[in-house]
Amino acid sequence: MMREPGGVSGVPAGRIPAPYAAPGRRAVQVTLVAAGGFYLFRYGLERPVAATYALFAAVALGGLSRIPGTGRQRAVLVLRLIPVGWLLVVVGTYLSVRTWSAVVGMLVVGFALAFSAVGGPRPAGAAPGLQLLYILPSFPPYDPGQLGDRLLGTTTGMALLVLAEALLFPEPTPPPYRARAAHAAAVAARCTALLAAPPYTLSRAEIRTAREAGHRLRSLTVPEADRPAGPGVRERALSHTGLATRALLSRLPRLSAMSGGGVRPLTTPDGDVRPPAAPCCPPDALVTAVLDAVARLATATADCLREGASPLAAYRELAAVRAVLSARSAAHPGEGETPAPDVLRRHAAVLEVADAALAMGAAADLAAHGRRASVTGPPERFWYAATRGPALWWHRVRGHAGRRSVFFQNAVRIALALTAARLVAGVDTLPHGFWATLATLTLTRTTMDETWSTIRSALAGTLAGALVTGGTLALVSTHTNVYAVLLPLWMLFAFTVGPVKGVGWAQGLFTVLVALVFAQLAPPTWRLAEVRLLDVLVGSAIGAVFGLLAWPRGAHDELRYAAAELLRRAAEIVVATSASVALEGPLRRAGEAVAPAGMPGHRSLQHAVILAESAYGQFQSEPTPFGGRGRGPVLPAVDWQAALMAGHHTLWGSERLLEPPCTGLGPTAPAVSGLGDRVAGRMLLVSAALDPGGDTPTGPVPRLARSLAGADAEPPGAPRLYYATVSWLDSLMADLSRIARGGEELGPDGDGEGVGRPGGAESGPGDAEDGAATTGNGPDGTGDTAGDPRGGRAGPGPVPPD
């Protein structure tokens, strides 16, 4: 057992280079299971077929697959996949007897397994291993009579792997996303309570803590296995909780900068907000009541996520007191004494905080209790709350069943490539055609550039491995005992070094490995190395052809398209809402909204938000055939979640401003309309940078100021609605500024030295965060229509489409 972190089998961590520690532990597990099952059946029970399937079942799900999570999490998944393995072996065995049925089966099963990645990172990680379990019985010997031994070996290999994952080298379990969200909600509760009591501001340390808590909810800081990307109600709601909590935490420092409402905050030339040096004035009783209610709801939300207690009472309390403040903010200018402009501005900012807290509480209750949740948020925001699991899965699958879905693209690409490899192997009777199909599976990538680079390395490694194999077979000849001794040692070496050194080393080492296996199953000759090289060459050529013909550019562009479309829709709503609240006339005097919250523009933006969220979820769990990531051009330092926040805030703020009773803005109407046009223009500017059209010049995403110049103006006699609208527009500018800053959060001094500077684009799960690149654009992407950004658009995401 591991005695020190990073060590293997009791070896101190300091004696093993850090990059080899985790692969070394994995290699020990796979070697013990694969070699143990192989020797048990090959030499103990004299059942070579069962031996082969036991070994390859362990290699498939332990070595080829990249299932995220801890050992126990992987063990649970592999245990659930045992019946799937049985089905694949049975179907592969019976369809292999004829070439045409084997080819059709490879097309259908290959597509289905690759497309199963729509279920999230874990199904995506297991898919390559399941492909191998189907490929193995699809090749000679075509003997259904061996089915019993095949199932026995497969079951033994997978069962031993479950035990190894669960018992060997236990790993520390990282805090789950619910714990992160609960911590962030508790931080929000503490900060809000401080804002409701003297001196009504947050210290630099408290602001930094809030920024750090929000940053920990970003996907690039969350282990892949813990990211809420599944299609179920709880996963969607948990992702929604993180988004709303991050929005709340981003609003509190801005509220603190107002210093209690008595002194206007200072703005730097870059638009950063700094608290004033002057002493603050206390907020009025209603604002304090709202902040106290927000703090109680945030505390209840944290308890709900940790212990399951419903936040219903706190939610209702905040909803009631927020409604009172909202009604006061919408009062006519002539009704009673008009408060000072800074007080009105603070009222508007507090409404923003309350809205984010209400969304957080409703989403957390859904995440904890599913359809039994007590809190019922707005149905347009939580459309998935009452939807059954099969229907949500159907929405996810249907949304990706189109050519713009990267899941669909990857499934088509790999299914066609595997089918072609099986056809070539069957028609030309390619010796060991299984190896050609395996090479197609492991070397095909989602971008042509990466596929070509992978193939070149793989061929060089295979050639070197073939030379070693030929020499070994020539020297050892038929001495099976030598191969039996070398196999576990070489397997341990291959699975430790291969993942670290890259695909060239992996292919070369695996070439020798399969030779050591097959040399114990049949009399070997040096020509086995020649056949292996030929098969890898054929499989590589097939993978390259389909990588070139079928969507050769990867998934990143679709996220750019979805985010750009969201901002374009949001810009339309900003213009329409600003113009609507600026109108004067009979409808305003009657207290009616000119543009109801359910107006078609709102529905279009809601759909765009859904598509962008799905594309973002797809970006986080973008699958590639061998656990790699093959992305196209990546914009540097783009905070994609900030774009989602901008969409949500556009919806929430617009709905609030258009709620009756509404009043006209009087002489301030032109100023508000002009500010709305400027914010919309900046949204379109960022949108064009994210996804430029064919005749639009490409360029970097602009780094916008965090505050809208002119938003702190105080026109004489301005009504409450003016400050509410300006606060909303100013918060949207803060969201837009984060998009280009890559999540760089504002430090306590407003200097930008916050925590959220990852140095790269918002990344998805995989082997590393990707911080590459350029602003180039090309087609291709991910989506969900009526469920998805990629086929009407949208993928598995925080809140996938309806």
TrEMBL record:
Source organism of this protein record: Streptomyces graminearus
Record Pfam families: FUSC_2
UniProt keyword list: Cell membrane, Membrane, Transmembrane, Transmembrane helix
Chain segments annotated as transmembrane: 48-65, 77-94, 100-118, 406-425, 455-475, 482-498, 504-521, 533-551
Keyword Transmembrane: yes
Bias (Low complexity): 771-788
Subcellular location(s) per record: Cell membrane
Protein name, per record: FUSC family protein
Membrane topology annotation: Multi-pass membrane protein
Residue stretches of biased makeup (Gly residues): 753-763
